[in-house]
Amino acid sequence: MLSRVRSAVAHLVSSGGAPPPRPTSPDLPSAPSAQSAAPPEAPRSPPARAGSGSAAPAKTVEARASFSRPTFLQLSPGGLRRADDHAGRAVQSPPDTGRRLPWSTGYAEVINAGKSRHNEDQACCEVVYVEGRRSVSGAPREPSRGQGLCFYYWGLFDGHAGGGAAEMASKLLHRHIQEQLKDLVEILQDASPPPLCLPSTPGAPGSSDSSHLVGPQSCWSSQKEVTHESLVVGAIENAFQFMDEQMAQERRGHQAEGGCCALVVVYLLGKVYVANAGDSRAIIVRNGEIIPMSQEFTPETERQRLQLLGFLKPELLGSEFTHLEFPRRIQPKELGQRMLYRDQNMTGWAYKKIELEDLRFPLVCGEGKKARVMATIGVTRGLGDHNLKVCSSTLPIKPFLSCFPEVRVYDLTQYEHCPDDVLVLGTDGLWDVTSDCEVAATVDRVLSAYEPNDPSRYTALAQALVLGARGTPRDRGWRLPNNKLGSGDDISVFVIPLGGPGSYS
Amino acid sequence: MLSRVRSAVAHLVSSGGAPPPRPTSPDLPSAPSAQSAAPPEAPRSPPARAGSGSAAPAKTVEARASFSRPTFLQLSPGGLRRADDHAGRAVQSPPDTGRRLPWSTGYAEVINAGKSRHNEDQACCEVVYVEGRRSVSGAPREPSRGQGLCFYYWGLFDGHAGGGAAEMASKLLHRHIQEQLKDLVEILQDASPPPLCLPSTPGAPGSSDSSHLVGPQSCWSSQKEVTHESLVVGAIENAFQFMDEQMAQERRGHQAEGGCCALVVVYLLGKVYVANAGDSRAIIVRNGEIIPMSQEFTPETERQRLQLLGFLKPELLGSEFTHLEFPRRIQPKELGQRMLYRDQNMTGWAYKKIELEDLRFPLVCGEGKKARVMATIGVTRGLGDHNLKVCSSTLPIKPFLSCFPEVRVYDLTQYEHCPDDVLVLGTDGLWDVTSDCEVAATVDRVLSAYEPNDPSRYTALAQALVLGARGTPRDRGWRLPNNKLGSGDDISVFVIPLGGPGSYS
After folding, report:
1. CA A116, CA A118: separation in Å to the nearest integer?
2. Helix, strand or coil for residue B24?
3. Where is the PPM-type phosphatase domain (chains A, B) (predicted)?
4. What global pTM score does this model have?
C-alpha cells in the first residue's frame, strides 16, 4: 500500500499554485526492529473497563519498534526473517502442529516484492468475550446474573506509510468493539425490541414512554423500530471511530503514524457482520455463487463525497486544489477555452470555460490504482493518517478520509451451509490481480482436493490464493501463469469456512 | 404532494427551542384562475439562443394564473372543470380523435381527493429539435453543413405548495435540455471520442494535446475516457440546475413559488435517459421482468447527505434543529439519560448521553410518507422551493434540497423489444398504493386484451393504472377492491412503449 501514498506527487503539484516537490514522504516511521514477542491475547480474558462513550477505552499498545507479524503465525526469529525476505517471498501460514484458528479458519500471507521494507499488512483472529457493563434495569450486576456474549473476530489491516497503524489496529480494534458491545450484552439476548432510552445511573428507570408525544398527524408521533442487528452495526461503526481517535491521541508515543485500511468480520448471535473501510475486499463463495460482502472506498468511488466536502469547506483545499474534476491536466495556455468537467453533483460531464482557479490541481485525479486524493493517497477510508499532509505543504489530508466502515450483514441461519462455503477476505494485493470469479474457481479446485472434514483444507486454500496472486519469479519479475505480472504488494488472505467442521463452536 | 409540505409542523417545532406554530404554509400561491390557453409547442421550432454556461437560457413563461392542465389533453373549458372536480375524480387522457402522442405513448391523470384545490401534477411530452450552436472546429456554421439532433421527451412534475413550479418546469425543462445539448450536436454524431477541450472562439484550434503532461508514474499522466453517453447525462444534470436557477430568478414575477419533483425521460440516439429528482418512479416492464429505472429521494433515503450538510454547516440548522437522528422525540425530563441516535456517518444505532442540544428538533424525522426535513418537506430533490422556510421561522430549507437528478441510461438497441415492453412513469400517487409487481401484472392484463398494433392500448393501460390507484368511492372514501384506501393524491402516469408500432419514429 505504500506506493498509494508516495506516488509521483513531485511531478504533480509543482504547478498550478502548489510549491515544489519533496522526494520522500514525511510520514514514514522510524527504522524497524525485532518482532514483538507479546503472547497471544487470551480469548476470554475480562476486558479493560472504561467509561461509556469516552474516546479511548481500550488498552494501548506498548511503545516499541514497528515490525511484527500476527502472533498466530508463531514465527521463530528465523521464521520472521524468512517472512521478511522480499527475494524469496515465502508464503506464511499458521503451523499445522499448533492450535488451529477458530472455525479452522485458513490464513496465508506474503510480503511485497520490495515496495516497502516490511510487510505492512497485519491480521488478527480472536474469540472475544464481552461481559455486560451493568444490567439494563440499572441494578448493579451480580456475578451470577446474566450471561456475557462471545463474538468471533477476524481482521485484515493493510498499512501505508509504515506498518504502525495497521499493527495498532490489529491489536486493539476488537477491544474497541468489545467495549462498544458492553452496553448491549443484555439487550442483544433479549428478544424484545431494544429500549430507546437507558437510565444514566444504576437504579433509575428505563424509559420507553411515549405519552408526551405529539398527535397522530405528526411526522414525529411514532417511534422508529431499531433492530438488534442495527445496534451491532452501530457498535462496530463507533469502534472504528474510537480506534481512529486513539491513534490520533497516541500517534507520537507509539509510532502508530501512517494509516491502514481495515476489513473486519464479527460473528455474533448467528449473524456475520463484515465491516470495510478501505480497498480490501470480502466475498462469500456459496455453492459456487459469489456474494459480494464489501465495496472498495477509493478516490473514484468516493469522488462526489470528497468533492462535496471540498466545495462546502474550501479552506480544506488551500490555494493548491480545486474541487472540480477534469479529464486531464489543464495547461495555462488553455485559459479561456472550454474543458470537460464534473462537480460534486454530477455523474456526467459538461464543458465549462477555463478560469484561473481551474488551473489548480484537482482534489481527485487519476484512474484505477493511480487515482489519488490531493495527489497523495489512493484510499479514502481507513484508520490513522492523522499526520498525512500534501507533499511539501501543510495541507492535511485527513479531513477527506473517513474512518467509518460500510457494514454488511449476512445471516448464517438463513441457509444451510456446506463445508465448501467460505467467506474470503483479502487485501488489495490479492484483488489487484485476481477476480472474484477466479477466487471462486480456486475455492472449488482446492477444496475438492481435500476431504470435507479435513480442517487443513482452508489453510491450503488461503495459500493457493496468495500464491496465485504472487506468481513465480520469472523474466525479472513475479509472474502469473499467463505471463502477466503478479502482485508486488503485500498479500494477506483469510478463508473463513461457513459450514466447516469447526464453525460456530 | 401538498400535504408533504404542510404536515403537522405546528405540533412539532413548538418545543426544543423553536418558536410557536403557524397554521398555514407561507408558500401557497395565490388563488387559481382559468386554464392557460397557450398553444402546444411546435416540436421542431428553432430554440431561443442563449450564451453557453449562463443561467437563464430558456424562454420564460408568461405571467399568469397558475391552473392549467397539459396542453396535449386538449381540454375544453368544460373538460377542464370536470378534470378539476375532486368529487368525481374523472380520469383524463388525450382524446382518441386528436393527434397521438409520440410513440403512441399512453397518458392518464386524475386529480386528488381534496388535499389541494387543483391538480398539482403536470406533464409534458414533446419532440425537440436541437440545432448545433456552431461547429466544433470553430468555423462558423453553414446552413447546409451538419445535421441537428432530435430527442423525444416525457416529463412528469409533481408540485407541492402550489402548482406554479410544476407548471413552469413542464413548459421549460425540455428547453433547458435542448440548450445544453446545442454544444454537443456534432460531437454526439461523431463516432470518435469527445474532445476534452473546445476552443473559446470560432477559428481557434481544438485541443486534445497531451505532450505537456507529466511522466508515466503520475496519477495524472493520462486522460480520462469520456463517453458520449456521459455528455448527455451531464447536459440533463445541468439543465435541471439551470431550470432551478431560473425559478429562483423568476419566482416572484411568475407565481412559480412552491416546488416540484421532476421525472424526465429523454430518448436520444438509441438510448433512453431517465432522470429523477424526487419521489416519482420509473420502471421498465420487459417480457414481464421489472427493471427499476429510478430511485426515490426522500428524507429517509437521503438522511446521511442531509445530516452531513447540517454537521458541516451548522448555521443552516439555526438554534432549532440538531443534525442527529433519534428514534423518537426526547423529553426534557430525559436529559442526562442515554438515548439511541445516529449521526451522518452511521447506518446503525448507538446510545449517547442526552445533552441540552439533543432536545432540539431533529433535522430528519419520521418514517415512510411521514418523513420530513426540518419538520416540513417530505422530498429532498426537485425544482423550486426557493422561498420555503421552516414554519414560523426564517430558516430556509432550500439548502438541504438538491435539484440534481439521478440519471439512469437504458440502451434500447441492446434488446429486441416487443409491443408489450413498456416504460412506466408515475407520480407518487400511483406508487403509494401500487407495487412494481402490481403494475407489471396490470401491464400484462391490459395489453393482452388489445391487438399488439392497436395504438390505443397504451392509453388504456395508463388509465387502468390510474384507476387502480384511485379506486372507487365507497365507505366515505376512495377504496381499492381489497377495501384498502386508494390514493387521495394527484395521480399521473405515462406508458411509453419500447417496441410499439410508433416507437422511435
Report:
1. 6
2. coil
3. 104-498
4. 0.84
The grid cell for B413 is 438497441
Residues B279 and B314 in one domain: no
Tell me which residue in B11, B327, B336 faces A214 most closely, judged by beta carbons.
B11
Residue where a domain terminates, one of B359, B378, B397: B378
B394 Cα to chain A: minimum distance (Å): 21
Cell of B69: 392542465
**Cα angle, residue A40 at apex, residues A34 and A44 outer, rounded to 5°:** 160
Asked if B495 is an interface residue toward chain A (Cβ–Cβ < 8 A), one would say no
Copy the grid coordinates of residue A95. 503451523
pLDDT per residue as tens, chain B (505 positions):
445 554 433 333 333 333 333 323 323 233 223 333 333 333 333 333 333 333 334 444 443 444 799 999 999 999 999 999 999 999 999 998 878 999 999 999 999 999 999 999 999 999 999 998 755 454 444 444 458 999 999 999 999 998 999 999 999 999 999 999 999 999 999 999 999 999 875 434 444 333 322 333 455 567 888 999 999 999 999 999 999 999 999 876 666 679 999 999 999 999 999 999 999 999 999 999 999 999 999 999 999 999 999 999 999 999 999 999 999 989 999 999 999 999 999 999 999 999 999 999 999 999 998 999 999 999 999 999 999 999 888 999 999 999 999 999 999 999 999 999 999 999 999 999 999 999 999 999 999 999 999 999 999 999 999 999 999 999 889 999 999 999 999 999 999 999 865 555 4
Chain B interface test: which of A4, A237, A351 (most B C-beta within 10 Å): A351
Whether residue A226 and residue B197 make contact (CB cut-off 8 A), yes or no, is no
- Regarding whether B111 and B98 lie in a shared domain, the answer is yes
Contacts of B371 in chain A (CB under 8 A): 219
- Separation CA A420–CA A108 (nearest Å): 18
Contact A219, B372 (CB under 8 A): yes
Domain limits at B465?
Answer: 71-132+148-189+227-297+405-497
Q: DSSP secondary-structure letter at B485?
A: B
- Contact status of B219 with chain A (Cβ, < 8 Å): yes
Report yes or no: A315 at the B interface, CB cutoff 8 Å: no
Residues A282 and A264 sit within 8 Å (Cβ to Cβ): no
With CB atoms and an 8 Å threshold, state whether A338 touches B198.
yes
Measured between CA atoms, how close is B345 to chain A, in angstroms? 7
Residues in chain B with CB shorter than 8 Å from the CB of A370 are: 218-219, 221-222
Answer yes or no: do B12 and A350 touch at CB < 8 A.
Answer: no
Q: Is residue A185 within 8 angstroms of chain B, CB to CB?
A: no
Closest residue of B to A378, CA-based? B219
Residues of B in contact with A375 (CB under 8 A): 219-220
Chain centre distance of CA B59: 20
Same domain flag for A176 and A86:
yes
Q: Do A338 and B196 touch (CB under 8 A)?
A: no
Q: Sort out which chain B residues have CB atoms less than 8 A from A345's CB and list them.
A: 237, 241, 402, 404
> Which residue has cell 473559446?
B200
Residue type, A159: G
What is the value of ipTM here, to two decimals? 0.83
Residues A320 and A363 both lie in one domain: yes
Q: Would you state the cell numbers that stand for residue B307, as one nine-digit string?
A: 445530516
In a domain? residue B409: yes
Number of Cβ atoms within 10 Å of the Cβ of B242: 24
Asked if residue A4 belongs to a domain, the reply is no
Q: In chain B, what residues touch A233 (CB-CB under 8 Å)?
A: 346-349
Chains A and B: how many Cβ contacts under 8 Å? 249
Nearest CA in chain B to A304: B305
